[in-house]
Amino acid sequence: MPFHRFYCSSNLFTKEEKQAIAKAITSFYHFLPPFLVIVNFIDVDKDNFYVGGEPNDRYIRINVTQSANPVPE
């Protein structure tokens, strides 16, 4: 089960852009049922994200985890 997390500054993406990204990621996993593909956008305030010791309000960090279970024969 793929889980994509987007840590990004608030208002970096519009609601429509988030949905388009989620649909594009889901379509990449065409071999899986869509309900197994998870995309999560996490807004992080400037006061909580620092780059080089300085607050930053234009960033994105993407974390992808993949869980897989063996399929019984």
UniProtKB/TrEMBL annotation:
Pfam families per the UniProt record, alphabetical: Tautomerase_3
Domain Tautomerase cis-CaaD-like, chain residue ranges per copy: 1-69
SUPFAM superfamilies assigned to the protein according to its UniProt record, in alphabetical order: Tautomerase/MIF
Signal peptide feature range: none
Protein name in UniProt: Oxalocrotonate tautomerase
InterPro entries for this protein: Cis-CaaD-like, Tautomerase/MIF_sf
